[in-house]
Amino acid sequence: MAGGAAVAAAGLGAAVATTASAGETSASASSATPSASASSASSPSGEVCYRLTSETTEGPYYIDADKIRKDITEGKEGIPMTLRLKVIDSDRCEPVAKAAVDIWHCDALGLYSGYESSSSGGGGTPPTGTPPTDAPTGAPTGAPPGGGHQEPTDDKRYLRGTQLTDRHGFVEFTTVFPGWYRGRCVHIHTKVHTGGKLTDDGYEGGHTCHTGQLFFAEEAVLDSAKVAPYNTSTTERTTLDEDGIYPGNGAQGGLLKVKYRKGKIEKGVVGSLTLGVDPDATHDGTDL
Q: What range does the record give for the signal peptide (predicted)?
């Protein structure tokens, strides 16, 4: 499934695949998992097992899972992106079906829906050459420190959405490649909920078993900065290595496997990752 999506995005010709994981292993060449963590191992049944994916802070801009949908773009400009995630029980080595997966991220110029007046963006001359060596300090403008939640300031909900995993543990979102804002590298927030159910108001009940962030290798970010509307940003950019939240442990820390056509990133990107979770644990990310 992941391979088919990658071919659709990359088309014919040379493709770029970016990831910083090392020592990646899989049970067999026919494994359907999109990306193994650096610490994966095979079970006797041949399924790939995954250690727990790193927990990170929820951040200030989370809004409860009330938009059950695959396409979260709402017409926002940016590089088309297909995000494919698989949720697996890291102890039992089995896919987690009917888990609710939330994702949310800023737009191409660093703005979060629901928080446009307190999140930060920029426009003007794009970054060029080598990434900055001095990381900007402090949180995004208007954001409380750490994982402190901030109440929404507007009713917009672009680039936010929730889906239930299928029986194989997969969800797939249609979105755009995120931009950046002061103090953080390019990232996507995610939560995994279990034990609840779908209602007319969204996903209700249960608990949050994983709160994390998904990251991008520098090559993909620099390629995105060459095309509109990313190339109008004047906001200082924090690199992956400079970021204070990325744990530096590759796929286990949330580093996506990203594929796109070389020199044609504007045509589309496919990002994939397997999230190893403990379905019975509670990690809401507000105490990190």
A: 1-22
Instruction: Kindly report the length of the chain.
Output: 288
pLDDT (0 to 100) of residue 8: 44
Nearest to 109 by CA among 230, 241, 240: 230
Reading phi first (left if > 0) and then psi (alpha if -120 to 50, else beta), residue 200 is in alpha
Strands (DSSP E) contained in 114-254 are 160-164, 170-176, 187-199, 202-215
**For 219, phi and psi rounded to 5 degrees?**
-60, -45
Inter-residue contact 189 to 59 (CB < 8 Å) = yes
Lowest mean pLDDT among 19-28, 150-159, 165-174, 255-264: 19-28
pLDDT above 70 (res 192): yes
**Integer Cα distance of 159 and 76 in angstroms:** 8
HSE (CB half, 13 Å, CA atoms) of 257?
A: 23
Question: What sign does the dihedral 75-69-273-143 (CA atoms) show?
Answer: positive
The phi and psi torsions of 103 (rounded to 5 degrees) equal -135, 150
Q: What is the pLDDT of residues 37-65, one digit of tens each?
A: 334 555 444 445 778 999 999 999 999 87
